[in-house]
Design a protein that fits this description.
The complex is a heterodimer of chains A (383) and B (449). With 383 residues, chain A is mainly alpha-helical. Chain A has 16 helices and one strand. The longest helix of chain A has 37 residues. The radius of gyration of chain A is 23 Å and the shape is globular. Chain A starts with a helix and ends with a helix. Chain B is 21% helix and 20% strand. Chain B is an alpha/beta fold. The longest helix of chain B has 16 residues. Chains A and B meet through β1, α3 and α16 of A and β20, α10 and α11 of B. β1 of chain A pairs antiparallel with β20 of chain B.
Chain lengths: 383, 449
Amino acid sequence: MKALRKFLDKQKPHFEKGGKFEKLHSTFDSVETLLFVPDKVTFAGSHIRDAIDMKRTMIVVFISLVPALLFGMWNIGNLHFLSIGQPTDLWTSFFYGFLKMLPLLIVSYAVGLGIEIIFAQIKGHEVNEGFFVSGLLIPMIIPPETPLWQVAVAVAFAVIFGKEVFGGTGMNIVNPALTARAFLFFAYPGDMSGDKVWIAEKLDGYSGATPLGDALVGNFDNLPSPYDMFMGFIPGSNGETSVLMILIGAVILLVTGVGNWRIMLSVFAGGIVMALLFNLWGANEYMELRAYYHLLMGGFAFGAVFMATDPVTATQTTRGMYIYGFLIGVIAILIRVFNPAYPEGVMLAILLMNVFAPLIDHYVIESNIKKRLKRMKTLVTNS
Amino acid sequence: MSTSYLIKKGLDIKLLGDSEKSIVEYAAKRFAIKPTDFLGVFPKMMVAEGDVVKAGQPLFYDKNRSKIIFTSPVSGTVESIKRGAKRKLLEVIIKANDAHDTVAFDVPKSGELTREVVIEQLLASGLWPMIRQRPYSVIANPADKPKTIIIPAFDSAPLAPDYDLIVHGHGDEFQAGLDVIKKLTDGIVHLNVHATLTTSKVFLNSKQVQVNTFSGPHPVGNVSVQLSKLNPMNKGDIVWYLYPQDVLSIGRFFMTGKPDFKRVVALAGSEVLKPVYYKTAVGACIDGLIKGNVTKGENRYISGNVLTGEKIEADGFLGFYDSLITVIPEGNYAEFFGWLLPGLKKFSFSKTFLSWMFPNRKYRLDTNLHGGHRSLVMTGKYEQVFPFDIYPMALLKAIMIEDIDAMENLGIYEIDAEDFALCEVIDTSKTEMQSIVRKGLELMRQEMS
């Protein structure tokens, strides 16, 4: 470690202003701070600081995604071998899925981090850790057979137009990972929907429809059992099928305090309330679908736990979080049931509420301001 | 009449190196008054290097408010007048002599004291700067009539001095001080004690004041927190505040006619070998306290507490308003994969390090920033250590863009930089919040005057 530190210290001057590799300063800096928490000390304000930093926060989110990621890899392989009629053992399935996911992960990280580093260099700041998580999220919310060039284009679009044009991590309005997903969905609908894309290299004869796809066309008899949906033995985007694994991730996020329980809880609450309302209405078969099915199908759980809770694009006030989460749940189910063009509504619901989050915060804060002005007024009238 | 208030939000940071409850005499050789301790003061010198001064003799005055003068805490010679960039006055250093000469004032008997006389005497003796005002935390304006006066009788910050110990045996002087302070306002003088930690009869039996009981985690001892419960600040309100040792000084002055700058200072922190209390005076040089009394290695010396104190050198001086010297290790080391390790011994408000499983651990914390500056990303965390009906992030952002109306609407008059100290500590993005808030308050002060 000491030798490594010495080596870094020796190389550092080359990357500083005026050095040989001045243009690679951000790259060097990101590697250096990855290896070592910097030796910077406090100079103003509090003399002691919490050990937490952005890297720690992001690694916790990363870890919370791992169960769903590993399960997703296995599920890709398992479904593939099932579809060709040759069920096989756990490790073969996992390895097959691993090889399917790996290129997606590599492309996502290479393109995303590359752009981040270039922007950091141009703007002269440190490389933000935000993409550390986005880069993992993106491969997890797309179908296994998404062409790599599409992933690259989507990631580039998301990082540049979803984030960097606003000023980088912390300034963006919509969630970058969902921006990439939405880009793919609207730009290449053929590769993103239907019942052909969800199982890797499947035989044509095997039905590859997701539960949502079945529900959309009224194939309710085809729906998998709640147990299968909860465990995740169903076709779907790479990392989003297993509610169980997502809940393990949720527990990690909540115990560490990195994820916001208010948002998670209210997304689920909004979803179940809307589904129950539909049950009462009962105008068609989809509306009569048992409410909890909605929480198990598609990307609902994944969106609630990992997407809606993104602190940058969510509401920032406590009361705002309840409203924001609840509306995501409501709108997601609304889109599912009412809109024939979109089998899944979670992505659009979150993106929509991302845009409205500042407005919700504005009104919550406005009420705080009104309270303050009222206190002052009563004082003036009393005296 | 007594009321109790409970604060729920906040954080007690448990540090090693609490002071033992005994007081030792400390005769410092040099003393300094630092104009930088007084916000908004533009100092004009009244003495030159080499001048002999008595305790209570003017050293400089505030050009903006010429009635406010700053006097020498001891008798001695003006050793040097230290200036920084742009000739900014940093320190007026006095070398103490053994003469113990003090300027004598002709103070009227307590029966004849009026508000005007009290103000006049406090201004002339140089004790007036001990009284500060909210908003802005500047020295009180003698022309104002404060709505109330607040005296926090306990400090909730990490390693804070125990005022019970400091006032022990000085009940008469403390009461004399309160009697004088009562003359300054038509409103109530609030003496705020801690529900369990304050046991001293000096505080609990005080007269002329309303004793309020507070409990909860830090920042329960902060003036703004207590104000938010007792008397929420509105635009235009002015409240004065001072601390128990200032009350003692004022009391002694009106009892004897001699300006009193005595201070009991706690020496604390993980790097102090024998942390105890020292009896000295305002502005004492700390070199004698720490010589042979701190661990070897690079240390950070702080006048005040670890959250809001001022960094000073090993031969620096106690701040005018401080009753605590903290010594903690510097943290200028790079830690290999520090963000990845389990972190059993790392202090964090979050539960992202395994240390949360040991809630009672006391920490030896250093000054490492533990990360790099980032944009504000995490939300909902500051509110957990910020016990006000204010949205901290919204207020911070309003200050950053210098939106005066928004700052006012979001409650800037109700807080001070120190109230953001805990937010600053737990901040993932390592934002210098206290500096931001201080700038915002200064901007408001200039806009309003």
